[in-house]
Specification:
The protein has about 220 residues and is α+β, with helices and mostly antiparallel strands. About 45% of the residues lie in helices and about 15% in strands. The protein starts with a helix and ends with a strand. This is GrpE protein homolog.
Length: about 220
């Protein structure tokens, strides 16, 4: 009897304890992520100042901008030089054209004036043939003809003067002989006149725009 009692007591003592299921399941940690590593050797560090292909650094941009600016400055200097040369050539062409036009005009006027000089000389010779002593009221026709020729000569010379053609007579003002303007036909001593003075005009001279078209043929005093 005693043995049965002890056996029952031992069975109750070793009976497994029933675990109480918790209301909430325990939080389980996620498995760690798997990382893959390359077996290749690590690339060498890039040198300082090197950039990745296709990517420009600010230093490269500044160099390109500086180079482009220098190129534009050279183009500006070149264009300015060409512009100044063109302006100078154009002005030289204008001046040369003006001189050529003036030269052609003077040449044409000079040729025409030489032909007119012969006509003017005819008027002079016609007036010189009339004896002043015969210009009296008794010779009214001769006086009228003489006055008409003289008036025609004056009007003609006034018209020519407007175009630069002038006539001069050295003996009227007792001018000193000038080889650039006068042509000495003869020389003669005249005590009452200064030496080297043009006392006689054989043929009057002409100036065209201030230049000698024809030198006056004169007689010069030579007392020495």
């Amino acid at each position: 009897m005693l043995q049965r009692t002890l056996f029952r007591a031992s069975r109750q003592a070793v009976r497994p304890v029933q675990r109480i299921q918790p209301a909430f399941a325990p939080i389980t940690r996620a498995a760690p992520a798997i990382r893959w590593y390359s077996d290749a050797a690590p690339a060498e560090a890039k040198k300082e100042g090197e950039s990745a292909p296709g990517k420009e650094t600010p230093k490269d941009d500044a160099a390109q901008l500086k180079e482009a600016l220098e190129k534009k400055d050279k183009e500006i200097v070149d264009l300015k030089d060409k512009y100044l040369r063109s302006v100078a050539d154009y002005r030289n062409l204008q001046e040369r054209t003006k001189r050529e036009i003036a030269s052609s005009r003077d040449l044409a006027l000079k040729t025409f004036a030489r032909d007119l000089v012969e006509t003017v000389d005819t008027f002079d010779r016609a007036l010189a043939t009339v004896d002043p002593s015969k210009l009296t009221p008794e010779n009214a026709d001769l006086v009228a003809l003489h006055d008409g020729l003289k008036m025609t000569d004056q009007i003609f010379m006034s018209t020519l003067k407007k175009h630069g053609l002038e006539r001069f007579d050295p003996s009227e003002k007792n001018e000193k002989f000038d080889p650039n303007v006068h042509e000495a036909v003869f020389q003669t001593p005249m005590p009452d006149k200064e030496d080297g003075v043009c006392f006689h005009t054989q043929q009057k001279g002409f100036l065209l725009n201030g230049r000698v078209l024809r030198a006056a043929k004169v007689g010069v005093v030579k007392n020495a």
